[in-house]
Amino acid sequence: MTARRPSVVRIAALVPAVAVLLGAVVAGSASAAPQQDQQDGPTRSYQVSATFSASGRPAVTYDPARVPVGANVSVAAQSENGTTITTLQVRGLRPNTVYGAHAHVANCGVTGDVAGPHFQFRPDLVQPSVDPAFANAQNEIWLDLTTDAEGAGRAQSTVAWVFPADRRAKSVVLHDMATMTAPGKAGTAGGRSACVDVKF
Hints:
CATH superfamily: Superoxide dismutase, copper/zinc binding domain
Low-confidence stretches: 1-40
Number of domains: 1
Strand order of the largest sheet: 2-9-8-5-6
Oligomer: single chain
Strand content: 25-35%
Number of helices: 1
Helix content: 10-25%
Shape: globular
Largest sheet: 5 strands, antiparallel
Radius of gyration: 28 Å
CATH class: Mainly Beta
Distance between the termini: 83 Å
Number of strands: 9
CATH architecture: Sandwich
């Protein structure tokens, strides 16, 4: 009796079909990965809470009449999926008072000027920037607030970008007045009352 041999023709016919199927699976996996990467932006969170002092860090007041020694400040930031949300909270400031506030490029120092200009996601070549095309609440982080009768206040900024890995804001400065928006004055908010170091 002769043993039956497997049909070489049938097996050979299956090989191309299996190869096509495996190729489709591999191609599908390869094409899915970039889509997932595009959806997952860099995630970063940060928070600092401090008490303003006349000198030192992380929070310093340059105008104790507007930002008293012993007043409290908190800054929190969350960057995720191409969006950054920043929250500023203060307590113990002058009651019923308007303050401008922005993220700045450098750390706080002995004077308010040390913090440098505002951080801009798309930097203006001319600094300090007063062009509304650059100095605006979508290209910068603006946190203007008005305190209540107890001197407490809160502001939040949401921008459609995250900080580049090699370029981040390093401080938040409180200013003497609300931020202006007119050409030639955009982004300005008077003197620098106080500053707090951050690590966005």
